[in-house]
Write a structure and sequence with these properties.
By secondary structure, this protein is of the alpha/beta class. 50% of the residues lie in helices and 17% in strands. It has one domain (5-242): TIM Barrel. It binds pyridoxine-5'-phosphate (PXP).
Length: 243
């Protein structure tokens, strides 16, 4: 099986920095440690309320990180303008609700189809790879293909929270979703809620070529350091691919 890419989401380095309002810890410093730890991409979410990553962070990441930057963003005119100005390697379009603690569900592509049909080609024309963060639901995945996305990131949050037989059922939904994404000619990514205990089954899905993981890695970094936290995830992903 092909090597699977690891995107490390560094939002919560910014959360910690913002708790005191200064400049430490610096998300760019973390971004520059990812490559040596075995990661392939820096992922960061510029939320509408700027609760963690700021405009200045995103600008510095795109200009100075030594890895491709995957900018997560809501499908708004403001975010489209920022992405077109900064031109990150990739954009992942996510749903956003102000009251949520994190991205709680996949994008409703069916509902937003008309506006995504405008936005996705504009991003792609600027040389940005576009993925849509979607639940493993057949109609949503088909709509993602219709709006012209390059990739789908399957939302693994429900799988991550499920236990026992319910988890196996969610895993099967992810497997079927990944197969459909490939059949539709799109690249398949996955992420949300992944940790050392639940990552292997997702990394073993052959159609999945990229995982984006944040909260667990930053939390684990408190105990073992950021590099070791990412390194161990890399090892688990490689082992799941039979590498
Ligand atoms: N992928 C997307 C699209 C996300 O919105 C998030 C959370 O910001 C992640 C992956 C990472 O999720 P987690 O922080 O739970 O690993």
């Amino acid at each position: 099986m092909s090597r699977i890419r690891l995107g490390v989401n560094i939002d919560h380095i910014a959360t910690l920095r913002n708790a005191r309002g200064g400049s430490h810890p610096d998300p760019l410093r973390a971004a520059r440690m990812i490559r040596a730890a075995g990661g392939d991409q820096v992922t960061a979410h510029l939320r509408e309320d700027r609760r963690h990553i700021t405009d200045a962070d995103m600008e510095r990441l795109v200009a100075s990180a030594d890895l491709p930057v995957n900018m997560e963003m809501a499908a708004t005119a403001e975010m489209l303008a920022i992405a077109l100005r900064l031109r990150p390697h990739a954009c992942c379009i996510v749903p956003e609700r102000r009251e949520e603690r994190t991205t709680e569900s996949g994008l409703d592509v069916l509902r937003g189809e008309a506006s995504l049909c405008q936005m996705v080609p504009r991003l792609r024309a600027a040389g940005i790879r576009v993925s849509l963060f979607v639940d493993p639901d057949e109609e949503q995945l088909r709509a993602a293909a219709r709006v012209g996305a390059d990739a789908v990131e399957l939302h693994t949050g429900t799988y991550a929270l499920a236990r026992g037989a319910a988890r196996e059922k969610e895993l099967e939904r992810l497997r079927r979703g990944a197969a459909l994404v490939r059949e539709l000619g799109l690249e398949c990514h996955a992420g949300h809620g992944l940790d050392y205990d639940n990552v292997s089954a997702v990394a073993a899905i052959p159609e999945v070529v990229e995982l984006n993981i944040g909260h667990f890695l930053i939390g684990e970094a408190i105990f073992v350091g950021f590099t070791e936290s990412v390194r161990r995830m890399r090892r688990l992903m490689d082992a799941a691919r039979g590498a």
